[in-house]
Design brief:
Length: 202
C-alpha cells in the first residue's frame, strides 16, 4: 500500500503518542521508496540499484558545470523512448538507440556526435547518374557535414567480362541528399549496377 510521508515530524512540542504513528508511517514510506529499483534493507548489496527507470521529460534540468544530466524522452519511432544526455552548455546528445530504417539502409549516432549512415540501391539500366538520399525523419539526426563513400558493383551473370573502371563524382545537394555521378559506365555489358554507399559525418 502507498504510505504518506509527513515532513517535519516530530516537532519539539508534539506529544509522543501523536507523532509515533506519523514517524512509523514515514519509515514505512522510506522503505516503500527504497523497494522501487533498489536493493532492500538488511540484505547483501544494500545501497545499490537493481535497475533504473526514468519517466520521459521534455526539459531536463541543466547539470552542474562539472557533470551531465541523463534523462529519457519520447521519440516515437522506431522506439517509444530513448536515453539522452545533456552537457552544462545545454547541448543534448543521444545515448541509446541505433535504429535501422530498413533492411538495406540505416544509421547510428555515437555519443560524440559522429553519425554513420549507409544504404544500397540499384540504378536504372544504362544510368550514369544516381541520386541517393540519406535516411531522415523523426528520431534520425541530419548531417551538418557528411562525406559519402560509394562502391559500385555489376551483375555479370552470363558475361565473361571484367568490372569496368568507374569514375565517381560527388555533388552534395543538401544535408539529406547526395548526387552520385557514375562515369565510364558500359551499360551494354553491365546493364544493372548496384550502388552501395556509406557516409560519415556529424
Amino acid at each position: 500500500m502507498p504510505y504518506t510521508y509527513t515532513p517535519n515530524t516530530p516537532n519539539s512540542s508534539d506529544p509522543m503518542n501523536v507523532t509515533q504513528p506519523l514517524i512509523l508511517e514515514n519509515f514505512q514510506a522510506i522503505q516503500e521508496l527504497i523497494a522501487i529499483n533498489h536493493v532492500g534493507f538488511n540484505v547483501p548489496g544494500i545501497g545499490y540499484h537493481n535497475q533504473v527507470q526514468m519517466p520521459n521529460t521534455v526539459a531536463p534540468s541543466t547539470p552542474e558545470p562539472s557533470g551531465i544530466t541523463m534523462f529519457t524522452k519520447a521519440t516515437g519511432s522506431p522506439n517509444p523512448s530513448e536515453i539522452f544526455g545533456q552537457y552544462p552548455s545545454g547541448n543534448i546528445f543521444q545515448i541509446s538507440g541505433a535504429p535501422v530504417v530498413n533492411s538495406g539502409t540505416g544509421f547510428i549516432q555515437f555519443s560524440s556526435g559522429i553519425i554513420f549512415k549507409w544504404g544500397t540501391a540499384t540504378s536504372p539500366s544504362g544510368a550514369t547518374q544516381y541520386v541517393f538520399v540519406y535516411p531522415s525523419g523523426s528520431g534520425i539526426p541530419a548531417f551538418t557535414v557528411g562525406v559519402p563513400f560509394v562502391q559500385v558493383t555489376y551483375n555479370t551473370t552470363g558475361a565473361n567480362v571484367a568490372s569496368p573502371n568507374l569514375a565517381v563524382v560527388y555533388s552534395q545537394v543538401n544535408q539529406f541528399q547526395y548526387n552520385n555521378y557514375l562515369n565510364n559506365v558500359p551499360s551494354t555489358q553491365f546493364p544493372m549496377p548496384s550502388v552501395n554507399w556509406f557516409a560519415i559525418g556529424f
